[in-house]
């Protein structure tokens, strides 16, 4: 199925957490572009994704700096040239995702990836991206997806995480076009023990594809970095090709 692109982690990883996530935590991601592999001729994988945790920020100092320099920085927002995208607003998939990463690489800018846990965090992230005229990656983790579904839902067999991720995806798809920016809809680290969550989201991708001709999500991160290379790649291939 075209559209979503799985990601195989190589060195660094973030252990998925079923604990209640902290809202508003921002991570920046530097992604190498999808590459074809000889072992998987019909697939693309994203290798060596690095996570950079942002340091503690002195927001008062930043606010003061903005006040002092506002006259000089007003209306200097970076302007994207998005003629290369088939869909310029809302959730993008397939070639649009790859082309956006190529454009970011060419222009030398990063695309922020924000973990969302509720409609409120989705809206906050979209507003910030819109106000800065920036594309954005919105993603749910296994724990964050369960939180999106509600703390009253038991997560046996990843039921809550599947329901939360799928509901978040539909919500983001419904509101993202109104913000006038391209949005990549991603799911965060999925280790081997969380594969039922991954499979549930793939089932949602398939169902959405049958109706709309594209997957529900833009991409998924399959994090099998604790497994050997053969198990890592073969598990990814089994679920994607």
Care to describe what's here?
Belongs to the class II fructose-bisphosphate aldolase family. This protein is an alpha/beta fold. It is built from seven helices and ten strands. Strands 1, 2, 3, 4, 5, 6, 7, 8, 9 and 10 form a ten-stranded mixed sheet that branches. Strand 3 and strand 4 (44-47) form a beta hairpin. The longest helix has 18 residues, at 195-212. The relative contact order is 0.20.
State the main characteristics.
241 residues; 10 strands; 40% helix; alpha/beta; ten-stranded mixed β-sheet
Structural class: alpha/beta
Characterize the largest beta sheet: strand count, sense, and whether it forms a barrel: 10 strands, mixed
Question: Helical percent range?
Answer: 25-40%
Pick out the low-confidence regions: 5-55, 68-78
Radius of gyration: 18 Å
Please give the number of β-strands. Answer: 10
Total number of helices: 7
């Amino acid at each position: 199925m075209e559209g979503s692109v799985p990601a195989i982690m190589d060195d660094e990883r973030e252990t998925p957490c079923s604990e209640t996530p902290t809202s508003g935590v921002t991570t920046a991601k530097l992604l190498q572009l999808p590459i074809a592999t000889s072992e998987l001729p019909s697939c693309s994988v994203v290798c060596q994704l690095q996570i950079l945790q942002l340091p503690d920020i002195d927001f008062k100092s930043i606010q003061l700096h903005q006040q002092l320099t506002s006259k000089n920085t007003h209306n200097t927002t970076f302007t994207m040239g998005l003629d290369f995208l088939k869909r310029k607003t809302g959730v993008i998939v397939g070639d649009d995702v790859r082309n956006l990463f190529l454009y970011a690489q060419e222009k030398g800018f990063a695309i922020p990836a924000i973990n969302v846990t509720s409609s409120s965090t989705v809206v906050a992230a979209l507003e910030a991206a819109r106000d800065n005229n920036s594309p954005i990656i919105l993603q749910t983790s296994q724990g964050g997806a369960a939180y999106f579904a509600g703390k009253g839902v038991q997560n046996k067999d990843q039921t809550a995480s599947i329901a939360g991720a799928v509901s978040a995806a539909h919500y983001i798809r419904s509101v993202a076009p109104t913000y006038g920016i391209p949005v990549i809809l991603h799911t965060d680290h999925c280790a081997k023990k969380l594969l039922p969550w991954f499979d549930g989201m793939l089932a949602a991708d398939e169902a959405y594809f049958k109706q709309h001709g594209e997957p529900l999500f833009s991409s998924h991160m399959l994090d099998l970095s604790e497994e050997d290379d053969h198990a890592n790649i073969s598990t990814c291939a089994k679920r994607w090709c």
